[in-house]
């Protein structure tokens, strides 16, 4: 007769599943502390290289510029923005990128444009981004506060140590503060952009969204990578052979 699964076992199993998902996503983005890579290379990979930067910047930039020059008809600026997102998506699909990764940005762009067209407010094109910042910031903050940092779960999976990092005070403290830093980034975006959304200042909102995007994301990725590598120093190959 099987015994009921304890709360601790369920918690551990859920953390393993979440850690695997986060770790896989980090590895695809080039953020694997088990690999030897320079900080510059890691940050560049996390941003997606030139293609990732263009995908992140051009659709929003086109929308802001066209809306500022000619706010009416709204469909013009939205159409160009979604069209650019569609072009990038097609290129990804032709290059055999995973469909979910290729279509995710396009679906978000279409949903945002549809909402803006439905309400007739250009500022509503930024609603999904505001919701995303609020959701990410909340989840990361809560996970850090309860001692199950999402960063720790991802690194634990990548380094093959599971959740044992929670017994290491140094690692647990480091992942806590990294979680706080990432949550602060998302909440800072929300704090700056939400008032502009409520006031309907599309030009300022779009401009600050771009400024608070990759320019803030890149340094925090670099800091995160340096902290994780300090916690998990890479063993030279000759030492590995000697131990074997």
UniProtKB/TrEMBL annotation:
Keywords: Membrane, Transmembrane, Transmembrane helix
Coiled coil: none
Classification via Pfam families: DUF3159 (PF11361)
Top-rank lineage group of the source organism: Bacteria
UniProt signal peptide: none
Listed transmembrane segments: 50-69, 75-94, 101-119, 139-162, 174-198, 210-231
InterPro entries: UCP010219
Name assigned to this protein: DUF3159 domain-containing protein
Taxonomic source organism: Microbacterium algeriense
């Amino acid at each position: 007769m099987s015994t009921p699964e304890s709360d601790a076992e369920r918690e551990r199993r859920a953390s393993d599943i979440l850690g695997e998902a986060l770790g896989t996503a980090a590895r695809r983005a080039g953020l694997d502390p088990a690999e030897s890579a320079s900080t510059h290379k890691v940050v560049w990979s996390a941003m997606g290289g030139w293609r990732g930067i263009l995908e992140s910047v051009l659709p929003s930039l086109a929308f802001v510029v066209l809306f500022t020059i000619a706010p009416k008809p709204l469909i013009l600026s939205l159409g160009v923005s979604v069209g650019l997102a569609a072009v990038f998506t097609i290129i990804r699909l032709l290059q055999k990128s995973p469909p979910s990764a290729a279509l995710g940005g396009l679906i978000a762009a279409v949903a945002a444009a549809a909402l803006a067209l439905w309400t007739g407010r250009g500022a509503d094109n930024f609603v999904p981004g505001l919701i995303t910042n609020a959701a990410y910031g909340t989840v990361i903050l809560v996970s850090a506060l309860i001692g199950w940092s999402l960063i720790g779960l991802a690194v634990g999976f990548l380094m093959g140590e599971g959740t044992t990092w929670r017994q290491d005070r140094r690692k647990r403290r480091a992942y806590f503060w990294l979680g706080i830093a990432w949550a602060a980034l998302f909440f800072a975006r929300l704090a700056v952009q939400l008032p502009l959304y409520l006031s309907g200042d599309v030009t300022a909102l779009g401009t600050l969204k771009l400024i608070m995007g990759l320019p803030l994301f890149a340094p925090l990725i670099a800091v995160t990578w340096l902290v994780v590598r300090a916690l998990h120093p890479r063993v030279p190959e000759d030492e590995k052979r000697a131990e074997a």
